[in-house]
Amino acid sequence: EVQSYMGRLETSDKESVHLVENEIQARIDNIFSNLERLEILSSKEPPNKRQNAKLRVDQLKYDVQHLQTALRNFQHRRYQREQQERQREELLARTFTTNDSDTTIPIDETLQFNESLQSAHRGMDELIGSGTNILQGLRDQRVTLKGTHKKILDVANMLGLSNTVMRLIEKRAFQDKFLMLGGMALTCLIMFLVVQYLT
């Protein structure tokens, strides 16, 4: 039924399209509520049928989400068409006078804005590349530290170091872990601030 209503959307006129959209949304909401009940019922199926029932419910969820997305896309396209029609009607109904300031096109401001956006994009690409390199370096250091830690433990066992020294080493490794997490958080904060203020 929802799919048949979706087919009627394209042929509906401006007056009835809202009614068809509301009807489709009501049916989709009803399907979602029924799917929640089906999900509960599928969990009560016998173990040998439970997996199959859950897969069928998930497939239904996916189908309904696809219909919901299609409805939203149609509404978005309709809104854009209506906005374009309004703008066209306003433009056609408008009367221009000589040296009207509204008829000028602010090319310089547009170019400057475009250059700022391009610069922000380049900066973000560089930040992302730098962040990727930092993460890779941290991974390599982690592998190296693990290997070093294992070797230290082996040497400590061979030399018979005391438990106090071993605890100090583990405490230092724990502190280094927090330093690494703090550095990652600081890097993410800097990236967020750059995106916030450059765009």
UniProtKB/TrEMBL annotation:
Membrane topology, record value: Single-pass type IV membrane protein
Annotated keywords: Acetylation, Coiled coil, Endoplasmic reticulum, Golgi apparatus, Membrane, Protein transport, Transmembrane, Transmembrane helix, Transport
Pfam family, one: V-SNARE_C
Keyword Transmembrane helix attributed: yes
InterPro entries documented for this protein: GOSR2/Membrin/Bos1 (IPR027027)
Transmembrane segments: 178-198
GO cellular component: endoplasmic reticulum membrane; ER to Golgi transport vesicle membrane; Golgi apparatus; late endosome membrane; SNARE complex
SUPFAM superfamilies for this protein: SNARE fusion complex (SSF58038)
Source species, domain of life: Eukaryota
Main subcellular location: endoplasmic reticulum
A single GO BP: vesicle fusion
GO MF, one annotated term: SNAP receptor activity
Cellular compartment(s): Endoplasmic reticulum membrane; Golgi apparatus, cis-Golgi network membrane
Family: Belongs to the GOSR2 family.
Its biological purpose: Involved in transport of proteins from the cis/medial-Golgi to the trans-Golgi network.
Name the record gives this protein: Golgi SNAP receptor complex member 2
Name of the encoding gene: Gosr2
